[in-house]
Amino acid sequence: MARGRWRMLHFYKQIWLHTGRSQILLIILSLIVAALAAAPLQFQKDIINSLGPDLVVEQLLMLCLGYLGVITLSNIFKFMLNYRSSLLGEATIRMIRTRIYQSRYDPEARIKRDTGTLSTIIAAEAEEVGRFVGAAIANPLLQVGTLVSVISYVMATQPYLGVFLMLIVLPQLVIVLFLQERVNRRVKERTLTLRGATSEISKEDVEQLKAAQQGILDDFDEIYLTRRGIFRLKLSMKFAMNLLNGFGLVGILFIGGLLMMDGRSDVGTVVTAIAAQDKIRDPWRQLLNFYKELSSVRVKFDLIVGAGPVVPVRVGTKSGA
């Protein structure tokens, strides 16, 4: 476990070393989007509570315009964040592919690197690692910031509902941490098996290829079985998340109903809490998916580094990001 954490820190150290300047802009944009996450909830609450026989049309219009303005502003910053993140990821993919391709022949060791392994890295693994780099810091920062912003707002509005939202979120973290390590092991096994099969297929000698045929077919079967195990684990996590989210919705309605009976809440607050749970579900799901992707990509990054040197290159605006 400690070794895995050290590798994770090393992975992030490499990301910051090569893309630090570009990541700063992404961090700023992430914080702005996260700060705006709770603003629509206040407008939603005020609009719902203003509905009724005493409705003032001018007030409703101003609230709706404010609501629309916050949503528009938030989406502008999201667009900027996603665009810059995608560009950084693509620039990183180009860098990894370039360096891996240039390392196919090591002039010092006088050895030619395995063509099948390099082909797999260039075609698939480089893209996964590079795409991840673009979101490596901004994504978790945005999701955590959104969670803090939304839960803090609900707790400030109605503490009981805010605490309940936190109790729904935390078990999901335990579930992912428990199951993801098992997924990681299977991802590594699948990647190594696929590399071996690709290397055998790329042999030019017909007799060697014929001799390796059964081994290649066995590798395909092994990849299928490994993927089947990954599917079971991932779908189990998804099942648990959906169950907890359903429990959360029912719980908010029940607790909100009791609070309204005692006069400690109103319809707008309860509806806003439901909307907040919906708003929490997406960043929390993305945060958990990010952790799963991080674990998987870190394994593949280690495998890429083990296959050949990826020369350090600073990826920034000059690289097209």
TrEMBL record:
Question: Where, per UniProt, does this protein localize?
Answer: Cell membrane
Q: What range(s) does the ABC transmembrane type-1 domain occupy?
A: 24-296
Question: What are the top taxonomic ranks of the organism?
Answer: Bacteria, Pseudomonadati, Pseudomonadota, Alphaproteobacteria, Rhodobacterales
Which controlled-vocabulary keywords does the entry list? Answer: Membrane, Transmembrane, Transmembrane helix
The entry lists its GO molecular-function terms as: ABC-type oligopeptide transporter activity; ATP binding
Q: Which InterPro entries match?
A: ABC1_TM_dom (IPR011527), ABC1_TM_sf (IPR036640), Type_1_exporter (IPR039421)
Q: What is this protein called?
A: ABC transporter transmembrane protein
Q: Where are the transmembrane segments?
A: 60-77, 132-154, 160-179, 239-261
Q: Name one GO cellular component term.
A: plasma membrane
Instruction: Give the membrane topology, semicolon-separated if more than one.
Output: Multi-pass membrane protein
Q: Which domain of life, per UniProt?
A: Bacteria
